[in-house]
Amino acid sequence: MNLVAVVLAAGHATRFGSDKLSALLDGEPLLFHAIRAARAAPVSRVIVVARPGLETGTWPDAPPVEVVRLDSPALSESLKTGIAAAAGANGAFIFLGDMPVVPHGEAARLAELMGSAYAALPRHDGRPGHPALLSARAFPDIVSLTGDEGAGRLLRTRSDVVFDDCPDPAIHFDVDRPEDLGWLASKDRAPEN
Predict the structure, then answer these.
(1) Lowest pLDDT segment from 174-178, 180-184, 189-193
(2) For a designed S-S bond to 100, which of 11, 33, 59, 83 qualifies (C-beta 3.0 to 4.6 A apart)?
(3) How many angstroms separate the CA atoms of 25 and 21, rounded?
(4) CB 145 within 8 A of CB 134
(5) pTM confidence score
(6) H runs (alpha helix) in the chain
(7) pLDDT of residue 18
(8) What is the DSSP-derived secondary structure letter of residue 191?
């Protein structure tokens, strides 16, 4: 199965008050942590949908990282752009650029569960999180999204979505404010791969 990862990083981060994805966590831009999680997934390539001017780094070795620039901060536009770049793949993992501590092994578990499902999602305490794995069957439906809407509405209406009950609440943690980075830095976390 040919899977790709899409990292969404085109938003303006208005709640953060500055360039959130370039803010440092463990000495690296926040976005680099999300790209590293995407590269740990069982994928043939990683597509980063980034706003103009955002530093996306250099990533040697496999899987390769491709950057697609997008002027629109709308989540739906980022998702559509990423899915269009993933054309030809059997499925796409959706990672968010402001989720730096997604467990690296979760994507592999989702790929194992996927089968013929429309999508596979991690779930903690009954709430779905990230990364989401969308099958190629979901790709045409992404076109209907508008504004700051992600794929959540589509996924909630489907009966053919499978879930992995994940013990790690990090599938929900996104950085919205500078104090979120301070909180992360103060936690004793295992180093990322």
Answers:
(1) 189-193
(2) 33
(3) 10
(4) no
(5) 0.93
(6) 30-39, 75-85, 106-114, 139-142, 152-156, 178-186
(7) 82
(8) P
Is the distance from CB of 28 to CB of 56 less than 8 angstroms? no
β-strand partners of 94:
6, 132
Supply the pLDDT for residue 193.
35
Residue 32 domain-assigned (yes or no) = yes
Q: For residue range 87-123, what is the model confidence (pLDDT) as tens digits?
A: 999 999 999 999 999 999 999 999 999 999 999 999 9
The closest of 93, 98, 141 to 114, measured between CA atoms, is 93
**pLDDT above 90: residue 4:** yes
Q: Note whether residue 192 is domain-resident.
A: no
Give percent above pLDDT 90 in the chain: 79
Residue 27: how many other CB atoms lie within 10 Å: 6
- DSSP state letter for 190: P
Residue 59 Cα distances to 66, 71, 103, angstroms: 9, 23, 20
Instruction: Name the residue range of residue 21's domain.
Output: 3-186
Is residue 165, in this structure, part of any structural domain at all? yes
Q: Which of 92, 74, 98, 75 is nearest to 173 (CA)?
A: 98
| DSSP helix/strand/coil, 83 | helix
| CA dist 46 → 19, 81, 148, 178 (Å) | 22, 13, 22, 27
Whether residue 126 has pLDDT greater than 90: yes
Residue type, position 38, single letter = A
CATH code of the domain covering residue 90: 3.90.550.10
The domain tally of the chain equals: 1
